[in-house]
Amino acid sequence: MATTRLPSAGFSITIRIGVMADASSIGRLTTCVGEAGAIVTALDVVDSDPTTVVVDLTCDTADANHADQVVKALEALEGVDVRKVSDRTFLLHLGGKIEVTPKVALRNRDELSRAYTPGVARVCLAIAENPADARRLTIKRNTVAVVSDGSAVLGLGNLGPAASLPVMEGKAALFKRFGGVDAWPVVLDTQDTDEIVRIVQAIAPAYGGINLEDIAAPRCFEIEERLRDLLDIPVFHDDQHGTAICVLAALTNALRVVGKRLEDVRVVVSGAGAAGTAIMKLLLRQGVGDIIAYDRPGVLHAGLKDLPAPWQWLVEHTNRDGYQGDLQGALRGADVFIGVSAPNLLTGDDIATMAPDSIVFALANPDPEVDPREARKHAAVVATGRSDQPNQINNVLAFPGVFRGMLDAHAEGFTEEMALAAAQAIADVVGQDKINPTVIVPSVFDPRVAVAVAAAVRAAAQSGAAPAVADTSTP
């Protein structure tokens, strides 16, 4: 019955169970859960009497079906009464994850008169006279719109705006927790490029930055490019640039571990969508030796016809030897594999064909391109996007600090120089004396990360890498 997939906190359940009050009952429960392939993370006694003990058993499972299997295994035990099963992820989302909290007290008529009418009229007139004052006197100074059309939600596909809202809420919560940035979900009931651009342009006056999220390729490229031309605030597609920054940071330290230089390695990238394309562009900008890109048509090469513009660009800038085989063939002798595509594309035997001291970043979530347990048998460094595995490559390492830096600098755009600076800052937080095969990126909870990234991005903005106005106002 044990699952071959990896259990995770994302499928954590709490099961309320009544059992006989004898010395072996609790042990039978935990043994049963372990044999079913789940991981017990907590066991709490809720109630008891002379004959019965009621416990809450919390465990991580691999998916909803696996959770059902675990519950059925417990129900099959003699003397076990399963009374309730709670999905901890759904409990966390009840009522949403964010709220608006006023920064000023409204305790009496005097305070109300200054925060709202009549006093607020003077502030409105000041901004009408000098629109730049909106950055100083309103939420624009510290607020980001998290914009999605729901067309590419996580790895789940086109779920629409309502179903994308939990992700955008989570993103807003991460902005606040890690960067002190006030962010708000803006989910749009349209997937028309022109309409999305017009809507975002229309709401932009209220925000200091736009974070595009979960918008399908290739539409996301055009939307970002057009908004950058239209707006005087940064537009940042996190699926592209946040991922690319984190991958470059992780690869910088992974190469330090194995003693290789970026300009000497051959990289195979599975997935040439928004994330993969941005990763490859940033690696090329940093001087990578060569890249082979793989997607639905196979390996991208000059012999393919009628390719979309982003793929045509990749054909012209990667795969310098013109390789035309399959993914497994591309992997032979490669130094680095980066997967931002689909689960279970590769086996441990495929990884074994890579160059000595190979590096594997299998980032498909929740199930990576190759089982990390198998990859570690052959690769020197393995990273995933999972929080329950070493070397989690997570965009939260990048976007809170990137926006913090851009907002502080009043940057009018996001640039490649900012991306490179952010990646270097993330890599350097680990410290040369701390890097090893299981530690190539800092923890997402390391308080130094967002501070370092913000400082690096702010410096890049103020050095002329992007039009910016220094923030001289008082906090």
Give a written overview of the molecule.
The chain is an alpha/beta fold. It is 40% helix and 18% strand. It is built from 18 helices and 14 strands. The strands form three sheets. A six-stranded mixed beta sheet has the order 11-10-9-12-13-14. A four-stranded antiparallel beta sheet has the order 2-3-1-4. Strand 5 (143-148), helix 7 and strand 6 form a beta-alpha-beta unit. Helix 10 (238-258) crosses helix 17 (416-430). Mean pLDDT is 92; it is low at 465-475.
CATH topology of the largest domain, anyone? Answer: Rossmann fold
Number of strands: 14
Question: Any idea of the CATH class of the largest domain?
Answer: Alpha Beta
End-to-end separation in angstroms reads 58 Å
Shape category = globular
Strand order of the largest sheet: 11-10-9-12-13-14
Q: Please estimate the helix content.
A: 40-55%
Find the structural class using helix and strand composition.
alpha/beta
What's the CATH H-level homologous superfamily of the largest domain? NAD(P)-binding Rossmann-like Domain
How much strand?
A: 15-25%
> What Rg do the Cα atoms give?
25 Å
Assembly classification: single chain
- The chain-level mean pLDDT equals 92
Low-confidence parts: 465-475
Total discrete domains: 3
Per DSSP, the total helix count is: 18
The major β-sheet equals: 6 strands, mixed
CATH architecture of the largest domain: 3-Layer(aba) Sandwich
Would you summarize the structure shown here?
This protein has 475 residues and is an alpha/beta fold.
What's the arrangement of secondary structure elements?
Layout (H helix, E strand, L loop, with lengths): L7 E13 L4 H11 L3 E10 L3 E10 L2 H12 L5 E7 H6 L15 H7 L4 H10 L4 H4 L5 E6 L12 H19 L2 E6 L5 H11 L5 E4 L6 H12 L4 E3 H21 L7 E5 L3 H13 L3 E6 L2 E2 L9 H9 L9 H5 L4 E4 L8 H5 L6 E4 L9 H4 L5 E4 L14 H10 L7 H15 L17 H18 L10
Parallel strand pairs: 5-6, 5-7, 7-8, 9-10, 9-12, 12-13, 13-14
Antiparallel strand pairs: 1-3, 1-4, 2-3, 10-11
Helix pairs in contact: 7-16, 8-9, 10-11, 10-17, 11-12, 16-18, 17-18
